[in-house]
Design a protein that fits this description.
heterodimer; A: mainly alpha; 3 domains; 5 helices; about 75% helix; B: mainly alpha; about 80% helix; elongated
């Protein structure tokens, strides 16, 4: 009886851990290829082809950023996703301006910030 | 002098030499003075001569081999046309046409999508390359990860004034 209660409690705890971020709208990292929809898989394959075409140092740079992305908390990732949505909605001229601002900011800011 | 109508009625008999000398003389006199009846008589005389030649022709005068060859060519030509027509009819049957069009559509779609691999992998028929399988989220959020640094500092970057804008403000 006591053992059954412990098993049930453990099950509820595991389910809670898995479902809580999704319930809060926090995006989970896609851990498995099967989690992606066919459309997402298609886009991922196109991105893989682009990645393969890049020089080795650019590939390494993106893989370093990917590691940073993985190390971020779910909240930080959510904030970045929101910023990405804002960036996508910018008109082309504004995007170009943003890129110029970023280049300037990056020159003036020490690495690691 | 005899009238044109009377002369034309007797022209065939005159050409065949069946008229009496008196009527023959009257026809000759008329033809000498009437160009229209003379032309009619010439045409009639040529027709009668041709008719006489044709009635003298026999089977021996006809080139049977040539006729047979021409006949065979005509029949073979019709058969060839018929063969082509039946081939087209066979090809245009829905049972043949529908799969052919479907195959063509699949080939066009596969080519447009970048090849069979780029279609079969998303559909789960073929496994993805090991790099994609290892880090699917890298390739799913590839553009975002490419711009990760600027997106992390989006608000700070946005508030950064550009040099030309600063110049415009101070100027």
């Amino acid at each position: 009886m006591r053992r059954q209660v412990i098993i049930d409690a453990f099950g509820v705890l595991c389910a809670g851990m898995l479902l809580a971020p999704a319930a809060r709208g926090v995006p989970l990292l896609a851990q498995n290829w099967r989690d992606l929809s066919p459309r997402e898989r298609y886009d991922a394959m196109q991105n893989y082809r682009r990645h393969e075409q890049l020089p080795a140092d650019r590939q390494r740079d993106i893989e370093r950023r990917y590691q940073q992305w993985r190390d971020m908390t779910p909240d930080e990732r959510e904030r970045v996703r929101q910023n990405y949505e804002r960036f996508k909605q910018l008109p082309p001229q504004e995007r170009e301006r943003f890129e110029r601002k970023y280049q300037k900011w990056r020159r003036e800011t020490p690495p690691g910030q | 002098m005899a009238s044109c109508g009377t002369v034309q009625e007797h022209l065939t008999a005159w050409i065949d030499g069946e008229l009496s000398p008196r009527w023959g003389k009257r026809v000759r006199e008329h033809l000498a003075g009437c160009a229209r009846c003379a032309a009619e008589a010439d045409g009639l005389r040529a027709s009668i001569a041709l008719q006489r030649v044709l009635t003298r022709l026999t089977a021996a005068d006809v080139d049977v081999a040539m006729l047979q060859a021409r006949f065979r060519r005509a029949v073979d030509g019709d058969a060839e046309v018929e063969r082509h027509r039946s081939l087209w009819n066979w090809l245009l049957r829905p049972v043949v046409l529908a799969p052919a069009l479907a195959t063509l559509a699949v080939i066009v779609l596969l080519s447009a999508a970048g090849g069979p691999t780029d279609v079969l992998v998303p559909l789960g028929v073929t496994p993805p390359p090991p790099a994609v399988k290892r880090a699917p989220d890298l390739f799913k959020d590839y553009t975002l990860i490419q711009h990760l640094d600027e997106l992390r500092h989006f608000d700070t970057v946005e508030s950064e004034p550009l040099d030309d804008e600063q110049d415009a403000q101070t100027g």
